[in-house]
Design brief:
Integrase catalytic domain-containing protein, RNaseH-like_sf, alpha/beta, RNaseH_sf, Nucleotidyltransferase, domain 5, nucleic acid binding
Length: 201
């Protein structure tokens, strides 16, 4: 009787990481072979099963959104990364990237979070684009407490440390890139990050 040899999840994550970083299926298979041998068809099947756009679980109870943004370098360009985390669980609730930073982008980011998790108070660092966006969406807004500031800054630095190495090893060389590979990689990162938090708990 044949028994299927299941691939450990850490290797699946690593294979997805390599693929979403911009490598082809065959190149991903070659890089992964240093750890475990899997052909490009197997990796293609992992990609089909993984849904990088889904990073939320609506069953989660949210007390408030802690929101911030930071500047990232992607290839030769800079882009804004928007992050929302839950104050209680410390999980990343949402990520978004944009070429601009203004009230309209902030409003769109917050409206997507409200759509997924409902209305909750919003804590920010005092950026002028947040109060008007919250007022438009009828969300309670306040500035970060020292605890919230520390929490979001550590999360942002954690993300930046990993995106910097991502850009070092997999720089974007496409002109007018739509950043789809970056979004996929970030969603994979969030999925892995949140699962690690749940595992620790």
């Amino acid at each position: 009787m044949n028994t299927r040899n299941r691939t450990p999840s850490r290797y699946v994550y690593y294979g997805l990481h390599l693929y979403f970083s911009g490598l082809s299926l065959r190149k991903t298979s070659e890089r992964l072979s240093y750890c475990i041998k899997r052909n490009h068809v197997t990796i293609w099947n992992w990609i089909q099963k993984y849904q990088p756009k889904i990073i939320k679980t609506k069953q989660r109870r949210i007390c408030e959104f802690i929101v911030d943004e930071t500047l990232l370098k992607v290839g030769s360009e800079y882009t804004w990364l928007w992050v929302a985390i839950d104050a209680k669980s410390k999980e990343i609730l949402s990520l978004s990237i944009s070429k601009e930073r203004n009230m309209f982008v902030a409003e769109r980011f917050l409206s997507n979070i409200v759509r997924d998790y409902g209305k909750h108070p919003v804590s920010t660092d005092g950026g002028t684009w947040y109060p008007m966006a919250c007022q438009f969406l009828k969300l309670e807004h306040h500035l970060h407490s020292s605890y919230e500031k520390n929490l979001i800054e550590r999360t942002m630095q954690y993300i930046k440390d990993r995106t910097e190495s991502f850009d070092d090893y997999f720089p974007c060389r496409l002109k007018n890139c739509k950043l789809k590979h970056v979004k996929n990689w970030l969603n994979l990162f969030v999925d892995y990050h949140n699962n690690e938090i749940k595992h620790i708990k």
